[in-house]
Write a structure and sequence with these properties.
binds adenosine-5'-triphosphate, 10 strands, ABC_transporter-like_ATP-bd, transport, single chain, ATP-binding, alpha/beta, ATP binding, globular, 4-stranded antiparallel sheet, Rossmann fold
Length: about 260
């Protein structure tokens, strides 16, 4: 070992943890939808979540965004490990958690440009008032975002005229405009053509270079192309975690999910 290597500061080899859930449980009418769940994601990182219907995937995301408060456990966020449990949904959104639901929710009567402009100007948070003022920097940012989501040519179009896939990308762009540190994406590939799926993969992989991205998806080919660590949920807990090859060869995963 050279002197230089020996005296150099230790290299940061691990991603820092952005979000950590530990021992989280939540029951609905006595039914444990989430059962002693522990989960960690770093920044940046891409993570896929798979699991059978009713495994708790939606509830897991609802807990992160503050829509559902757990009965037990901890949900810690950011460099200082602050608890998200006492925070409202809009406060959590402002802290940097963005969520993309399965159904696209863009402003159909506005153009693609207007949709992105509103998202850029909007204070972070689902119910905050939208207001906007045109600036040169804003126009450049809109174009950069549109390029990122493959909609540069579509900027003047009314969002309602876009294809399903394009609407999904527009919404991803609107979320990225808010610069979330964690982006939660629910079944992005649903209803998309193979070409659209491929573009969506590229977009998410790119987004995950600078932030944490959690993708809940049933389409295993799509998950494989994300080329990331996979967490398998079942009955509200983590059943398996690791590479796609690791989890898809796990006999328990095959039994509860893949072998259906
Ligand atoms: N508000 C609620 N009240 C009662 N039960 C609920 C509620 N929300 C979820 N559940 C139940 O908790 C379990 C987990 O549901 P969840 O929607 O989180 O699963 P999921 O993995 O997202 O399923 P899917 O793949 O079908 O979307 C299910 O059995 C569901 O019926």
């Amino acid at each position: 070992m050279s002197l230089d290597t020996a005296t150099a500061a230790p290299k940061k080899t691990r991603k820092s943890t952005l979000l950590e859930l530990s021992g989280v449980s939540v029951s609905f009418d006595g039914f444990k939808a989430i059962n002693n769940l522990s989960f960690q994601i770093g920044e940046p990182e891409m993570r896929a979540i798979i699991g059978p219907n009713g495994a708790g995937k939606t509830t897991f995301m609802d807990i992160i965004t503050g829509k559902t408060k757990p009965d037990e456990g901890r949900v810690l966020w950011g460099d200082d490990g602050i608890s998200l449990l006492g925070l409202s949904e809009s406060r959590i959104a402002r802290a940097g958690v963005g969520r993309k639901f399965q159904k696209p929710t863009v402003f159909e009567a506005q153009t693609v440009r207007e949709n992105l402009a509103m998202a850029l100007k909007a204070p972070r948070g689902p119910f905050d008032v939208l207001f906007h003022k045109k600036t040169r920097a804003g126009a450049e940012k809109i174009e950069a975002l549109a390029a990122q989501i493959g909609l540069l040519e579509q900027l003047p179009r009314i969002a309602g005229e876009l294809s399903h896939g394009q609407k999904q990308w527009l919404e991803i762009g609107m979320l990225l405009a808010q610069e979330p540190r964690l982006l939660l994406v629910d079944e992005p590939a649903a209803g998309m053509t193979p070409a659209e799926r491929e573009k969506t993969t590229e977009m998410l992989v790119e987004a995950a270079k600078t932030r944490a991205v959690v993708v809940v998806e049933h389409d295993m080919e799509f998950v494989r192309r994300l080329n990331c660590r996979v967490t398998v949920l079942n009955e509200g807990s983590v059943l398996a975690e690791g590479s796609i090859d690791h989890v898809t060869s796990d006999p328990q995963v095959i039994e509860v999910y893949l072998g259906r």
